[in-house]
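Forgive a beginner's question, but would it be possible to get a protein, spelled out as residues, together with the matching C-alpha coordinates, please?
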Amino acid sequence: MSSTQNVKCKGKHFTWSKPMSHMLLEILAEEALKGSKPSSTFKAESFVKVATEISQKFNVQCEPKHVDNHLKTVKKEWGIITKLKNKSGFGWDDCLKMITVSKDVYDEEVKIGDVALAIQSLSKNQLDVNVLYAEVMKIEGFDEITLGEAFDHLVQNEMLAKAFMAKNANLRKNWVQNFVNQHYYRPAC
Protein backbone atom coordinates (compact mmCIF):
# COMPACT_ATOMS: atom_id res chain seq x y z
CA MET A 1 0.00 0.00 0.00
CA SER A 2 1.44 3.38 -0.94
CA SER A 3 1.84 6.24 1.54
CA THR A 4 -0.77 8.25 -0.35
CA GLN A 5 -3.32 5.50 0.20
CA ASN A 6 -2.39 5.38 3.90
CA VAL A 7 -3.07 9.10 4.24
CA LYS A 8 -6.39 8.69 2.43
CA CYS A 9 -7.44 5.83 4.70
CA LYS A 10 -6.70 7.88 7.80
CA GLY A 11 -9.29 10.41 6.64
CA LYS A 12 -6.94 13.30 5.88
CA HIS A 13 -8.90 16.02 4.13
CA PHE A 14 -7.90 17.45 0.79
CA THR A 15 -6.52 20.99 0.87
CA TRP A 16 -7.41 23.30 -2.00
CA SER A 17 -5.05 26.02 -3.23
CA LYS A 18 -6.34 29.07 -5.10
CA PRO A 19 -5.02 27.78 -8.45
CA MET A 20 -6.80 24.47 -7.85
CA SER A 21 -10.05 26.28 -7.05
CA HIS A 22 -9.72 28.39 -10.21
CA MET A 23 -9.11 25.27 -12.27
CA LEU A 24 -12.17 23.59 -10.72
CA LEU A 25 -14.36 26.56 -11.62
CA GLU A 26 -12.94 26.82 -15.17
CA ILE A 27 -13.51 23.12 -15.89
CA LEU A 28 -17.00 23.14 -14.40
CA ALA A 29 -17.89 26.24 -16.44
CA GLU A 30 -16.80 24.37 -19.58
CA GLU A 31 -18.78 21.31 -18.48
CA ALA A 32 -21.90 23.43 -17.96
CA LEU A 33 -21.54 24.90 -21.45
CA LYS A 34 -21.24 21.36 -22.86
CA GLY A 35 -24.50 20.36 -21.14
CA SER A 36 -23.01 18.30 -18.32
CA LYS A 37 -25.11 20.18 -15.78
CA PRO A 38 -28.68 19.15 -16.54
CA SER A 39 -30.07 20.42 -13.24
CA SER A 40 -28.75 22.17 -10.13
CA THR A 41 -25.72 19.91 -9.97
CA PHE A 42 -23.15 18.43 -12.31
CA LYS A 43 -23.00 14.90 -13.67
CA ALA A 44 -20.60 12.55 -11.88
CA GLU A 45 -18.33 12.49 -14.95
CA SER A 46 -17.68 16.20 -14.51
CA PHE A 47 -16.37 15.66 -10.98
CA VAL A 48 -14.19 12.80 -12.23
CA LYS A 49 -12.78 15.03 -14.97
CA VAL A 50 -11.94 17.84 -12.52
CA ALA A 51 -10.35 15.39 -10.04
CA THR A 52 -8.24 13.79 -12.77
CA GLU A 53 -7.01 17.08 -14.21
CA ILE A 54 -6.20 18.58 -10.80
CA SER A 55 -4.39 15.40 -9.76
CA GLN A 56 -2.27 15.48 -12.93
CA LYS A 57 -1.52 19.21 -12.97
CA PHE A 58 -0.75 19.65 -9.25
CA ASN A 59 0.68 16.18 -8.56
CA VAL A 60 -1.88 15.43 -5.81
CA GLN A 61 -4.48 12.74 -5.22
CA CYS A 62 -7.75 14.54 -5.82
CA GLU A 63 -10.92 12.45 -5.86
CA PRO A 64 -14.41 13.27 -7.18
CA LYS A 65 -15.74 13.53 -3.59
CA HIS A 66 -13.14 16.26 -2.95
CA VAL A 67 -14.44 18.15 -5.97
CA ASP A 68 -18.06 17.77 -4.86
CA ASN A 69 -17.26 18.92 -1.29
CA HIS A 70 -15.23 21.91 -2.49
CA LEU A 71 -17.97 22.95 -4.87
CA LYS A 72 -20.42 22.94 -1.94
CA THR A 73 -17.99 25.14 0.01
CA VAL A 74 -17.63 27.54 -2.91
CA LYS A 75 -21.43 27.75 -3.31
CA LYS A 76 -21.86 28.43 0.41
CA GLU A 77 -19.20 31.16 0.37
CA TRP A 78 -20.68 32.71 -2.76
CA GLY A 79 -24.10 32.75 -1.07
CA ILE A 80 -22.63 34.69 1.85
CA ILE A 81 -20.89 37.13 -0.50
CA THR A 82 -24.08 37.66 -2.48
CA LYS A 83 -26.08 38.24 0.70
CA LEU A 84 -23.58 40.83 1.92
CA LYS A 85 -23.33 42.57 -1.47
CA ASN A 86 -27.10 43.06 -1.46
CA LYS A 87 -27.17 44.62 2.02
CA SER A 88 -27.43 48.35 2.32
CA GLY A 89 -24.03 49.99 2.74
CA PHE A 90 -22.04 47.06 1.31
CA GLY A 91 -20.30 47.00 -2.05
CA TRP A 92 -17.96 44.91 -4.20
CA ASP A 93 -14.45 45.83 -5.33
CA ASP A 94 -14.02 44.01 -8.64
CA CYS A 95 -10.27 44.65 -8.77
CA LEU A 96 -9.62 43.20 -5.31
CA LYS A 97 -12.51 40.70 -5.56
CA MET A 98 -13.75 41.52 -2.10
CA ILE A 99 -16.65 43.05 -0.17
CA THR A 100 -16.33 46.72 0.74
CA VAL A 101 -18.06 48.48 3.63
CA SER A 102 -17.55 51.61 5.71
CA LYS A 103 -16.41 51.27 9.31
CA ASP A 104 -19.74 52.65 10.61
CA VAL A 105 -21.81 50.13 8.64
CA TYR A 106 -19.43 47.32 9.63
CA ASP A 107 -19.62 48.24 13.33
CA GLU A 108 -23.42 48.31 13.17
CA GLU A 109 -23.51 44.90 11.46
CA VAL A 110 -21.22 43.46 14.13
CA LYS A 111 -23.56 44.74 16.85
CA ILE A 112 -26.58 43.26 15.08
CA GLY A 113 -24.67 40.02 14.55
CA ASP A 114 -23.75 39.84 18.24
CA VAL A 115 -27.38 40.33 19.22
CA ALA A 116 -28.46 37.65 16.74
CA LEU A 117 -25.88 35.22 18.13
CA ALA A 118 -27.02 35.93 21.68
CA ILE A 119 -30.67 35.31 20.75
CA GLN A 120 -29.71 32.14 18.91
CA SER A 121 -27.70 30.95 21.90
CA LEU A 122 -30.61 31.63 24.24
CA SER A 123 -33.08 29.82 22.03
CA LYS A 124 -30.81 26.75 21.86
CA ASN A 125 -30.67 26.74 25.65
CA GLN A 126 -34.46 26.79 26.13
CA LEU A 127 -36.08 23.92 28.00
CA ASP A 128 -38.48 21.93 25.84
CA VAL A 129 -41.23 21.11 28.34
CA ASN A 130 -42.86 18.53 26.07
CA VAL A 131 -39.62 16.58 25.74
CA LEU A 132 -39.04 16.85 29.50
CA TYR A 133 -42.56 15.49 30.17
CA ALA A 134 -42.04 12.55 27.83
CA GLU A 135 -38.70 11.69 29.45
CA VAL A 136 -40.04 11.91 33.01
CA MET A 137 -43.09 9.79 32.18
CA LYS A 138 -40.85 7.06 30.65
CA ILE A 139 -39.29 6.28 34.01
CA GLU A 140 -40.43 2.90 35.28
CA GLY A 141 -41.22 1.98 38.86
CA PHE A 142 -43.26 5.07 39.79
CA ASP A 143 -46.95 5.85 39.46
CA GLU A 144 -48.22 8.55 37.09
CA ILE A 145 -49.09 11.00 39.88
CA THR A 146 -45.59 10.79 41.40
CA LEU A 147 -43.97 11.29 38.00
CA GLY A 148 -46.34 14.21 37.31
CA GLU A 149 -45.25 15.89 40.55
CA ALA A 150 -41.60 15.29 39.72
CA PHE A 151 -42.24 16.87 36.33
CA ASP A 152 -43.95 19.92 37.91
CA HIS A 153 -40.99 20.33 40.28
CA LEU A 154 -38.54 20.21 37.36
CA VAL A 155 -40.51 22.76 35.36
CA GLN A 156 -40.42 25.14 38.33
CA ASN A 157 -36.64 24.61 38.64
CA GLU A 158 -35.30 25.01 35.11
CA MET A 159 -31.64 24.36 36.02
CA LEU A 160 -32.63 21.07 37.67
CA ALA A 161 -34.67 20.20 34.60
CA LYS A 162 -31.73 20.84 32.27
CA ALA A 163 -29.46 18.74 34.48
CA PHE A 164 -32.12 15.99 34.54
CA MET A 165 -32.27 15.99 30.72
CA ALA A 166 -28.50 15.65 30.49
CA LYS A 167 -28.52 12.45 32.59
CA ASN A 168 -28.85 8.89 31.34
CA ALA A 169 -31.88 6.71 32.16
CA ASN A 170 -30.39 5.21 35.34
CA LEU A 171 -29.44 8.60 36.77
CA ARG A 172 -32.87 9.99 35.89
CA LYS A 173 -34.55 7.14 37.76
CA ASN A 174 -32.23 7.76 40.71
CA TRP A 175 -33.15 11.47 40.62
CA VAL A 176 -36.87 10.63 40.79
CA GLN A 177 -36.26 8.23 43.69
CA ASN A 178 -34.37 10.97 45.57
CA PHE A 179 -37.20 13.41 44.78
CA VAL A 180 -39.73 10.97 46.22
CA ASN A 181 -37.59 10.39 49.33
CA GLN A 182 -37.24 14.14 49.93
CA HIS A 183 -40.80 15.27 49.15
CA TYR A 184 -43.04 12.52 50.48
CA TYR A 185 -43.43 11.86 54.17
CA ARG A 186 -43.87 8.17 54.77
CA PRO A 187 -44.28 7.24 58.41
CA ALA A 188 -42.62 4.02 59.50
CA CYS A 189 -45.10 1.29 60.43
Summary: The beta strands are 90-93, 98-101. The first strand starts at residue 90 and ends at 93.
